[in-house]
Design goal:
This protein is mainly β and about 180 residues long. β1 and β2 form a beta hairpin. It is globular and about 45 Å long.
């Protein structure tokens, strides 16, 4: 597995090894031992995933920015199994030197990249193609009583979304009415 650090501490890009032959390809998308070895190597605590989530989105659907507060903070390991997204993580750790900074990356079925978003980040993504299928593992169960949303285009964050015109973006009511 190839690992790339981002400019935001603890936010990691993972690229699994892809084994190709005349039949197609194979990859190990997740291995608990390997994942925890990676986290330990980069100074993070080992994590256990408790839930897998999957979403199917049409082009220009924007989901987020969401996070859960303590004691239900979630770490997420995000990947795309069909289509492509612009994936964004915002550092909401008030004691972090990158507090309120964001990182964005295109995750696609072709590049097979995964983004590790540890607890302490808000997360959102925009589907860049129809029928985009996103799978993400989380370290804590969903609890709507502890979920908070941040407006996707909050001026203080200045996220560079691929499409800025709200008329073209499809949002859930909870994300539109923040």
């Amino acid at each position: 597995m190839e690992i790339k650090e981002t400019f935001i501490k603890d936010l990691l890009i993972l690229k699994p090894e892809i084994h190709k032959d005349q039949r197609g390809w194979f990859l190990e998308s997740f291995n608990q031992n390997t994942f925890n070895q990676i986290l330990t190597k980069y100074g993070q605590q080992p994590q256990t995933f408790v839930q897998d989530n999957q979403s199917l989105s049409h082009k220009h659907v924007l989901r987020g920015l969401h996070f859960q507060t303590s004691p239900f903070e979630q770490g997420k390991l995000v990947r795309v199994i069909q289509g492509k997204i612009w994936d964004v993580a915002v550092d909401i750790r008030s004691d972090s030197p990158t507090f309120k900074k964001w990182f964005g990356i295109e995750l696609t079925v072709t590049n097979q990249l995964q983004l590790w978003i540890p607890p302490g980040f808000a997360h959102g993504f925009m589907a860049l193609e129809n029928n985009t299928n996103v799978l993400y593992k989380v370290t804590e169960y969903y609890n709507p009583n502890f979920e908070i949303s941040i407006k996707w285009n909050h001026p203080e964050l200045g996220i560079d979304w691929p499409i800025k015109n709200e008329q073209l973006i499809t949002l859930a009511p909870k994300d539109r009415n923040i």
